[in-house]
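sorry for the late reply, my laptop died twice this morning and i had to redo everyting from scratch. anyway the thing you sent over, i finally got around to it. pasting the sequence first so we're on the same page, its 285 residues, then the predicted structure underneath. double check i copied it right bc i was rushing
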Amino acid sequence: MEEEAKECYKKAKSISDEVLKYAKSIKFENVTALSVAETIEKLIIDKKGKPAWPVNVCVNEIAAHYSPTDASLILKDGDLVKIDFGVQVNGYIWDQAFTVCVGDDKNPLIEASEKALEKAVILVRKGVKVCELSEVIEDTVTSFGFKVIRNLTGHGLDRYTVHAQPSIPNVKNNIQDEIRDQAIAIEVFVTDGSGLVKESEPPCIYRFEQDKPVRLWEARKILELAKTEFEGLPFTPRWIKNVPKIKMEMAIRELLEANAIVAYPPLKEETGRPVAVAETTILVE
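ok and here's the structure:
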């Protein structure tokens, strides 16, 4: 790994660690998910980083890929709230996530996810096999009497790429790929449900895919912003100002139909049971 990349990763980590400490101090009860997301995004920018994607604020059975678009979702006592945020510096991404149970300091799902993450991180080194990491994750989670989410994984990180190789499943496998000198995100999802997520609606996160001719001026504006301002990384329509809601919806629809952007629908535990997540990034050298 080149020195420039290492320095950018280290700067992104420093910002991310400060943001994580602040985010964990937030009083979540009776606040909007939108205010939480916007506060964290602003803090990243204030500290001279950029959000690598819209801050995810996923509640209860929603495991991933939900970022609030308005102030309608209010966090309440007992909610299991997952905060997933990324900091990018010059395209190099640091990815962290944690879970809180609103109004309660302890929750067994959270405990299981954090313990599994802790044990997996201890194993991470150059040359360790993906299957070794997956085994310790699932064994730890099942020792608590819970299941991992089988169709969500940890992952490598690359420049301007959130999900790079290798994928690191939370379930046991026989993947012999070895961790090299790279950034990887260990991401442990835990549930007392079936252990699978499915896509739900509506999507609220999108990403530039390719240049395509589109008719609406608003669609052309969004596509240009997705490519340049957001640097090809995931974005949310709420980041785009001065486009009326109806025009925004029409433009997004046109861009999706043209395959100019891709959508990331919210991922929901298929039986409606709550999910906890614990995630950190490791720079393997």
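The mean pLDDT is 97.
thats about all i looked at so far, will dig more tmrw
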